[in-house]
Design a protein that fits this description.
The structure holds two protein chains of two kinds.
Chain A lengths: L5 H15 L11 H4 L1 H14 L4 H9 L1 H22 L21 H23 L8 H18 L2 H7 L2 H24 L18 H33 L8
Helix pairs in contact in A: 4-5, 4-10, 5-9, 5-10, 6-7, 7-8, 7-10, 9-10
Chain B lengths: L1 H22 L3 H21 L3 H24 L8
């Protein structure tokens, strides 16, 4: 039975390899993606419209801002769904101890290394988030790095140690605040006479030009994304590693 | 020429990592190998100039998803007949 499944695998693999030779050369200016009017529009106008050097961020947070807002909402809903399913489900089993949970002091070398490394990681996360329009990075990456620093705390000591700093209710509030910040910037530009997420209208409240208003609004939006992703990443780990009991964990 | 060689080397390692992740019986080791796979992908993205994608791959693929996989495996009943 196992060998029969090899036939479709080989067939599809062969088809993919056969199709792969039709790909344009890497970096070919004549390839369909490079020669379409959309690409050249963004390449020519991003710097003029928004003064953002990193085109990827400009497209993600400004031209395509509506899409990114709901990407953040998807992250939020995924996290809330995991919390809703797992929270309280472990309590029924009466706090039975898992075989990997042992009474042991946290390792001295591990905890001291983490103590040194976590501040660096968190500052780096802020850099990635705040520098997202100038260099590669942005809200999603910065948020994940920030969430990882809290997960590192939970791995080195135990879950309670990290939950003191980032409790589950706090996680949910911060995650919701991120989306409210994103949507709020959108609604603010609507109130100022533009369309939803039309950041250029923010020049009426910010002492900057229309281009720089878009630049700064993108930063605000990225901070909102960072809030949501940070707290949802940690909430996911906290619930998955302890089956919703939020104690002990790995 | 140098990049060509680098690409071939990384792609070969990718295939090895993918096969290893399938063959290895121990789930923890397999998820660690998945982390290696993600990191190799990240190197490829970075080499092609897609640094934003490489960044996301390194943080989400090699970092968080490995941790979440390990966290889930620790909560499974680890009994297997094969």
């Amino acid at each position: 039975m196992k060998w029969i499944s090899l036939v479709p695998v080989l067939a599809v693999g062969g088809l993919l390899l056969f199709a792969a030779k039709d790909f344009p050369e890497w970096g070919d200016p004549q390839s369909p993606a490079s020669s379409s009017p959309v690409s050249s529009h963004f390449i020519n106008n991003t710097g003029v419209d928004t003064e953002v050097p990193n085109m990827v961020t400009a497209v993600l947070a400004d031209y395509r801002g509506f899409d990114t807002m709901f990407e953040t909402v998807v992250v939020f809903i995924a996290g809330v769904a995991v919390i809703a399913i797992l929270k309280g489900s472990g309590r029924r089993r009466g706090g039975l101890r898992k075989d990997h949970e042992v009474e042991a002091e946290p390792d001295l070398i591990v905890t001291n290394t983490v103590r040194l490394v976590v501040p660096v990681i968190q500052i780096f996360a802020f850099y990635v988030l705040a520098h997202g329009h100038v260099s590669p990075g942005g809200g999603f990456q910065g948020g994940v790095v920030m969430g990882a620093s809290f997960i590192l705390l939970a791995l080195a000591w135990d879950l309670d140690h990290a939950l003191v700093r980032m409790s589950l209710p706090k996680c949910i509030i911060i995650a919701a605040a991120g989306i409210i910040l994103y949507g709020g910037i959108g609604f603010l530009s609507m109130l100022l006479g533009g369309e939803f997420l039309d950041y250029a209208e923010l020049e009426k409240v910010l002492p900057v030009s229309r281009e720089m208003a878009r630049y700064h609004a993108m930063l605000g939006v990225e901070i909102g994304v960072g809030f949501t992703v940070t707290s949802i990443m940690f909430a996911l780990y906290a619930n998955l590693s302890s089956e919703g009991r939020l104690k002990g964990g790995l | 020429m140098g990049l060509e060689l680098f690409n071939t080397f990384i792609l070969l390692l990718l295939v090895v990592a993918a096969l290893a992740a399938l063959r290895i019986r121990d789930l923890i080791t397999a998820s660690a190998v998945f982390g290696i796979y993600s990191f190799l992908m990240c190197l490829l993205w970075a080499e092609m100039g897609a640094v934003d994608v490489a960044f996301t791959e390194a943080t989400v693929g090699a970092g968080i998803s490995t941790v979440v996989l390990v966290a889930t495996i620790f909560n499974l009943k680890r009994k297997s007949n094969d």
